[in-house]
Design a protein that fits this description.
By secondary structure, the chain is mainly beta. The chain is built from nine helices and 36 strands. Helices cover 8% and strands 57% of the residues. Strand 20 and strand 21 (410-417) form a beta hairpin.
Length: 671
């Protein structure tokens, strides 16, 4: 399958040589708001190897959800529904990577990762991926960086909207409606509805989603107030087990946990405010209140009756406010503050290993608070742009747990902690000319165990008993340039970690819990290269990432960090056959890697693979759009997640099969 990637690369290079003129609409024309919340900054001025996917990209490339839109990002791996950026350990993405929706973090305060399925991609204006960025404004959870999803503004017309449907393999069905109206010159409103059902690749797998959002906006002089309410309901297969090699080779679609479903209800209220008080002074604020109820159930199996495994309710609120002051022609300083809190109430049931009796095993109540303050300064001098940032943050945990054994004997755990952290960032950017810039950046980010890790910490071993903040230092050197019709972006990075928080499910199987500090240092260094070539009807994209991620000392000294590949590559082609008809092809290569929790590198590496997707879009003059696509065109058979067994007696690999070839067809009407 590698031949397809090689051929595409040769075509891209050959076509580049035929270029004669510079075209508009390149990545250097993009602006970024992630670094300063609402004020847009040129890509040239951002001292990070940022990637931007705008709404036009989403449409022309046929992305059907946000996970697909992120597939071609350099250094980004999608591992069993989780994201890993620049060598982060699988299943820790939501701990080290902040996903923002209109500037508000979506990482769950409880034991859940962010769920990008809930965000309708049709309402997305732009996605910004900023590696090693955002920690000053959003804290230690942005160790690896941020992904900021910006939704579309309400339109400046009397009314607007669209209606659409999709269907495809595995009984996939999706229906959506969007309608908006300007009620007065200053007041506008919009409603979005989405329902989506799909039976998964593996036996009994399912994912059913309903989402509704109502939002309104009031225009101020030089500002706005925007309010949103959304409700979502999701029923999905929960934590499907991996297969042994024998099971995988016999039937990779089988599922030992048929009927194990999680059910989630979420209500969210959001208020956004920003206003320019004077030409030099701007204030902004974001507020979110969220209530989430979650449960999952086990089906009847091995003489054990069906029972509810977990029942959890989380209430959380988040606030971030900042003041931006412009001094001089291009200089600015931002003062900001952030506050968040969450209350988690959880009940857990288990079944006796011998008696098969269902009994209440845990009753957890956790309160969490975090407060932070930050300062960011930007200073421009001649062709140089310098920035400095500092953040001070304190977290508070108050955990009370009642644990029961099969006989109903109760033990009690009470844990309180109030750690503090300070983060720093320094960057320098040099503008060689209007189309070329180079930069150097450094940041130090400290992160305490978050709510999930705190309550699931391995305290049975003396080496891991103490909870420490991890410290990550990142240095990055990069360049961005547009030469005629060719955009090139490259970066080299070096990341050093100390007391890095790790996840290993084998501790849970041994009667402990799964999170701990690695007793040693980690080191990651890598190279990222991205290029795009623009022609009148054709755009070609290539990306290449090399990473060497190693554990420097401690119990796993000299071993590679498992679960992440050394080499990632991709090629994309978008061709406008006629003004109304667009064809897109994308192919991504993922290199070999050790199993996700094989810290000793005991097993052979998991094989590499290439996945190629193709899509087509046809727009009629009456507002009707027809589209379709095939994912995994060449039917590559692979696993996107492999881990070592957590069994006490058996040491083997467990495989989580990825989907084979699938298709989707859709129709949309816009008005």
């Amino acid at each position: 399958m590698k031949k397809y990637l090689v051929i595409a690369a040769i075509v891209a290079v050959g076509t580049t040589l035929l270029a004669e003129e510079k075209l508009e609409g390149t990545k250097l024309d993009e602006t970024v708001i992630s670094t300063e919340r609402y004020e847009e900054v040129s890509v040239m001025e951002v001292a990070k190897n940022i990637t931007i996917i705008n709404s036009e990209d989403i449409e022309k490339r046929g992305y059907k959800n946000i996970y697909e839109a992120l597939k071609m990002i350099p250094s980004l791996l999608q591992i069993d529904g989780s994201l890993s950026l620049r060598g982060q350990v699988p299943k820790l993405a939501d701990k080290n990577l902040v996903v923002l929706l209109d500037g508000i973090p979506q990482n769950g305060a409880d034991n859940r990762e962010f769920d990008l399925d809930i965000i309708p991609i049709e309402q997305v204006e732009k996605i910004e991926v900023v590696p090693a960025g955002g920690a000053i404004m959003y804290g230690g959870n942005a160790t690896a960086g941020i992904i900021n999803i910006i939704t579309k503004n309400m339109k400046n017309q009397k009314y607007w909207g669209n209606i659409g449907t999709e269907f495809g393999k595995y009984d996939y069905k999706k229906y959506r409606v969007n309608y908006g109206m300007n009620l007065t010159e200053k007041i506008s409103g919009e409603i979005n509805y989405l329902t989506k059902d799909k039976n998964g690749y593996r036996e009994g797998e399912k994912n059913d989603l309903d989402f509704i959002e109502v939002k309104s906006k009031y225009k101020l002089n030089n500002g706005k107030i925007e309010g949103k309410y959304s409700h979502s309901r999701k029923i999905a297969s929960d934590r499907i087990k991996g297969l042994s090699k024998e099971e995988y080779e016999k039937d990779r679609k089988q599922n030992p946990d048929v009927g194990r479903y999680g059910k989630e209800y979420q209500d969210k209220y959001v208020l956004l405010y920003n206003k320019k008080l004077t030409p030099n002074l701007e204030i902004s604020s974001s507020f979110e209140y969220k209530n989430r109820e979650y449960e999952y159930k086990y089906p009847a199996k091995d003489k054990v009756p069906a029972y509810k495994k977990r029942d959890k309710e989380t209430e959380s609120l988040y606030w971030n406010g900042q003041i931006k002051y412009l001094y001089g022609e291009q200089n600015s300083i931002i003062l900001g503050g952030e506050y968040s809190e969450a209350t988690v109430k959880e009940k857990v049931w288990s079944n006796g290993r011998k008696s098969k009796k269902i009994y209440k095993s845990e009753n957890n109540n956790i309160d969490y608070y975090a407060v932070g303050g930050y300062v960011q300064n930007k200073l421009a001098w001649d062709s140089f742009i310098f920035s400095q940032g500092i953040r001070v943050e304190q977290n508070k945990f108050d955990s009370k747990s009642l644990n029961y054994n099969e006989k109903g004997i109760e033990t009690q755990d009470k844990i309180k902690d109030s750690p503090e952290n300070i983060d720093y960032e320094l960057t320098g950017n040099y503008l060689f000319n209007d189309t070329t810039s180079g930069y150097l950046s450094y940041n130090r980010v400290k992160r305490n165990p978050n709510l999930t890790e705190f309550s699931s910490w391995n305290t049975k071993d003396e080496e891991t008993k103490e909870k420490k903040a991890q410290t990550i230092d990142t240095v990055e050197l990069g360049i961005k340039s547009l030469i005629e019709n060719v955009y090139v972006s490259g970066a080299v990075f070096y990341i050093q970690g100390k007391n890095e928080i790790m996840y290993d499910p084998k501790y849970g199987a041994m009667g402990g819990k799964s999170f701990y500090n690695l007793n040693g240092k980690t080191r990651r260094f890598g190279l990222e290269l991205v290029s795009e070539q623009y022609f009148e009807k054709l755009t070609i994209r290539e990306s290449f990432t090399y990473m060497n991620n190693k554990i420097v000392d401690g119990p796993y000294e000299g071993h590679l960090i498992p679960g992440v590949s050394k080499i990632i590559g991709g090629v994309g082609v978008t061709y406008e056959i006629i003004p109304q008809l667009t064809l897109n092809l994308e192919s991504k290569y993922i290199g070999k890697t050790f199993a996700a929790n094989d810290f000793k590198n005991e097993f052979s590496k998991i094989k590499d693979y290439i996945v190629t997707d193709i899509s087509m879009r046809y727009s009629l003059e009456n507002g009707v759009i027809l589209y379709g696509g095939i994912n995994n065109v060449f039917n590559e058979i692979y696993c996107d997640y492999v881990q070592m067994s957590t069994s006490k007696t058996t040491k083997e690999l467990k495989y989580s099969p990825a989907e084979e070839r699938t298709y989707v067809l859709g129709i949309e009407y816009r008005f």
